[in-house]
Design goal:
- The protein is α/β, with parallel strands linked by helices.
- The chain has two domains: about 240 residues, 3-Layer(aba) Sandwich (Aspartate Aminotransferase, domain 2), CATH 3.40.640; about 130 residues, Aspartate Aminotransferase, domain 1.
- About 35% of the residues lie in helices and about 15% in strands.
- Helix 3 packs parallel to helix 8.
- The N and C termini lie far apart (about 55 Å).
- The relative contact order is 0.12.
Length: about 400
């Protein structure tokens, strides 16, 4: 569909990738490496057009029509001019950063970033000769952090595992005044709840492994961009051979059809769990962007349209979180989130941060509220909390 289409986003989700009728409701899976031509002129014309048009079918390394349909859908979802697909979310993070830096550059990264992104910055970027420094999540003025050699600012909002909400419009305005590019990890909002490109960021990264796919069976990442960030990303993605297989592209696009409905259910259930847990004597606090008193709650209400299924619970000192998790029946233990299933895992989000929150000292568990009935999930939590130690 056209980016100028005035229909609601819920309607556009149903029509992404739709071809002329009569035809299939979903774009078919196209598996191909070689794309054939009958003339040299056609071959050369295709290679020339693909440098500015990402929908040109030219070679499997640049995706087939299935991946092109997904990329166009995510670009529209994010409000971007272009979208580039990657085989995992972490690959997308690396692909969103690398085109804009070189040896001798300086990068600023929010301290509450996803740990895998932090590892990439501290390891891979360091080996490339790039210096990385971290700044607090509530920063809006980079005066104390930027240097003459600073090139890039990396943000994530809400924060990984603790969900502090950044004031992206204010931070981006300050960064752009210093000619700095801003890259946002927006996996939490998944292009539906939150749109960093509209808040001032230049690049937005989503791990589509989570809510875009929605069924715990796809690995993929997406990088959307606008303005001057598009051309460097296009060159880098093509040069490094990053793409997404047609089957994963198909499954992600199919999962996106129900994105709005699923997120409504995830949000309602997570909020119900958060409020129930908040009143338990074993619990010190519940971290969730919609709860009163949460850091940046007012900013999230201003900039976003809802919350997802994530919450983190801090328990009282001495509480055995591992035994608690093991007693859960409906919450499985596993990495990732954003699928239909409920998950629980121990976490220590303040570990390794430059500016840890000194008030968070109790053991913590991250929960993902799946699509099970909320009463069953609350009953599961109650049984696990009531069991003898």
């Amino acid at each position: 569909m056209s980016k100028t289409d005035e229909t609601h986003r819920e309607t556009r989700l149903m029509h992404y990738g739709r071809g002329p009728l009569p035809g299939p409701a979903n774009p078919p899976v196209m598996r191909a490496s070689t794309v054939l031509h009958d003339t040299v002129v056609s071959y050369r014309d295709t290679k020339a057009r693909r440098e500015t048009d990402d929908a040109v079918l030219s070679y499997g390394r640049r995706g087939t029509t299935t991946a092109h349909a997904l990329a166009a859908a995510i670009a529209d979802l994010e409000g971007g001019e272009a979208c580039f697909l990657f085989p995992t979310g972490v690959a997308a993070v690396a692909g969103a950063i690398a085109p804009f830096i070189a040896a001798g550059d300086h990068v600023l990264c929010v301290d509450t970033i996803f740990p895998a992104t932090r590892s990439y910055c501290d390891d891979a970027l360091a080996r490339m000769g790039v210096t990385v420094d971290y700044f607090p999540w509530d920063t809006t003025d980079l005066t104390d952090h930027a240097r003459p050699e600073t090139k890039l600012v990396i943000v994530e909002s809400p924060a990984s595992q603790t969900y502090e909400v950044m004031d992206l419009p204010a931070l981006c305005a300050d960064a752009h005044a210093r000619d700095l590019l801003v890259v946002a990890d927006s996996t939490y909002g998944s292009g539906w709840l939150y749109r960093p490109l509209e808040l001032g960021c230049d690049v937005s990264v989503i791990a589509g492994t989570k809510y875009l796919g929605g069924h715990a069976d796809v690995m993929m990442g997406a990088v959307s961009a606008k303005g001057g960030a598009v051309a460097p990303l296009r060159r880098h993605t093509a040069m490094t051979g990053q793409t997404l297989g047609p089957d994963d592209a198909y499954n992600t696009l199919r999962g996106m059809r129900t994105l709005a409905l699923r997120l409504e259910r995830h949000e309602a259930t997570a909020l119900a769990l958060a409020r129930w847990l908040r009143d338990r004597p074993e619990v010190t606090r519940v971290l969730h962007p919609a709860l009163p008193g949460h850091p940046g709650r007012e900013t999230w209400a201003r900039d976003a349209s809802g919350t997802n299924g994530l919450l983190t619970v801090e328990f009282t000192q001495g509480f055995d979180t591992e035994d608690f998790i093991d007693r859960l029946a409906l919450f499985s233990v596993g990495s990732s989130w954003g699928g239909f299933e409920s998950l629980a895992m121990p976490c220590a989000p303040e570990a390794g941060r430059t500016y840890p929150n000194p008030d968070r000292t109790g053991p913590m568990v991250r929960l993902h509220a799946g699509l099970e009935h909320v009463d069953d999930l609350i009953a599961d939590l109650a049984r696990a909390l009531a069991a003898p130690a």
